[in-house]
Amino acid sequence: WPKRARVLAALNHQETDRVPIDFGGHSSTSIIEPAYHKLAAYLGVQPHIRYLRQRPRIVIPEEAALEPLDVDTRVVTVLPNATGAVRFLDDGALLDEWGNAWRAPEGRHYYESEWPFAGSPTIDDLRRHKWPDPTDPSRYVGLAERARELRERTGCAVILDFDAGFFEQSWKLRGMTDFLTDLLIDELFVTALMDRILDIQIEILSRALRAAEGWIDIVYTHNDLGTQTGPMISPKTYAKLVAPRQRRMFDAIRKHSNARIIYHSDGAVHWLVEHLIDMGVDALNPIQVGASGMAPAELKRDFGDRIAFWGGIDTQKTLPFGTAADVRAEVRQRIDELAAGGGYILAPSQGIQDDVPPENLVAMIDEAHRYRPGERHGIAMPIAPTA
């Protein structure tokens, strides 16, 4: 099967020659910089770092790494605002274009250290804030050319990785504790905050899709709404304040393209899936299998004919701490649970962190190439480290 056709068929709930494989197709299936250096060394590739998202150091794997892995996806993204792009301050903090300051201990992840709307903000504070400029044409330069070149040269499904989490961006600007409190006691401010962010994100996304000239196959969006054990907010609050705004985002994607929609939320989100189906989402990512209510076989039973599943190979336990044989066994189990009748794209259940051995990542991809339900396969790994 051609790669792009394989992915789109799976999203249409059609079985293909093998399960589609995603690595590096969007920010939740890619890899952070330290882990990528290890993978590149394992594959004998000279790494040239290009960030998909700079703050979390998520990189775009280069073709020299992706081609031998023979995955089915490629990624493009919208560029930061040229006049307000991510930059480093004198004290080493990273300032993003929304006005958040982030700091990181050496060799560690960034943590948010300043919130523009901390304290007791007002609607006037929202008006005075310096917001990202969605009209800046530099965001969209070369987007159609990059997408077209990837589709034509690789034959892969092209995914627009769009940082469209208005719910997450709201708590990043306000501070999570205050934002979650606002949802209960200050609906006027919190809805104004979410709407301001959402308006900007929809404008950026709409301009990006128009600029891409039809070369985008799938749009990746996100808003984390689950903890390890249940909803982050009450389903009632979600239905009243968040769901209508999500629908606006998804409607905008459909208005400006024929692209399919991936929605990402970590955690226990069984409760959320019916809402996503109702809003026309094509695939749920990342399928965090260790969270409550996220058993893949149950998800397939409850929703598998109406939404596809994207991810599912455990990055909390199996990929970082298991053996290559453990990884292969989980790949076979996940295919058995989710792939029947189509509707499954195999990928890690989160971006690859520094604790995942490259041998395990390669074993995941290799086993997905090899395994066919009902057939016996060895565990030889054709992609071996170089001397």
What does the model show?
The chain has helices at residues 3-11, 33-43, 63-69, 123-128, 143-154, 166-174, 176-185, 187-211, 235-256, 270-278, 296-303, 318-321, 324-338, 358-370, and strands spanning 31-32, 51-53, 58-59, 73-77, 87-88, 94-95, 101-103, 111-114, 157-161, 218-222, 260-264, 283-285, 308-313, 344-348. The protein has 387 residues and is an alpha/beta fold.
Keyword list:
globular, 14 strands, 387 residues, alpha/beta, disordered C terminus, seven-stranded parallel β-sheet, four-stranded antiparallel β-sheet
What's the arrangement of secondary structure elements?
Elements: H1 3-11, E1 31-32, H2 33-43, E2 51-53, E3 58-59, H3 63-69, E4 73-77, E5 87-88, E6 94-95, E7 101-103, E8 111-114, H4 123-128, H5 143-154, E9 157-161, H6 166-174, H7 176-185, H8 187-211, E10 218-222, H9 235-256, E11 260-264, H10 270-278, E12 283-285, H11 296-303, E13 308-313, H12 318-321, H13 324-338, E14 344-348, H14 358-370
Parallel strand pairs: 4-9, 9-10, 10-11, 11-12, 12-13, 13-14
Antiparallel strand pairs: 1-3, 2-3, 5-6, 6-7, 7-8
Helix pairs in contact: 6-7, 6-8, 7-8, 8-9, 13-14
Radius of gyration: 20 Å
The biggest beta sheet, please?
7 strands, parallel
Record the strand order, biggest sheet: 4-9-10-11-12-13-14
Separate helix tally: 14
Distance between the termini: 34 Å
How many E strands? 14
Shape: globular
Mean pLDDT: 93
Q: Secondary-structure element sequence?
A: HEHEEHEEEEEHHEHHHEHEHEHEHHEH
Low-confidence stretches: 376-387
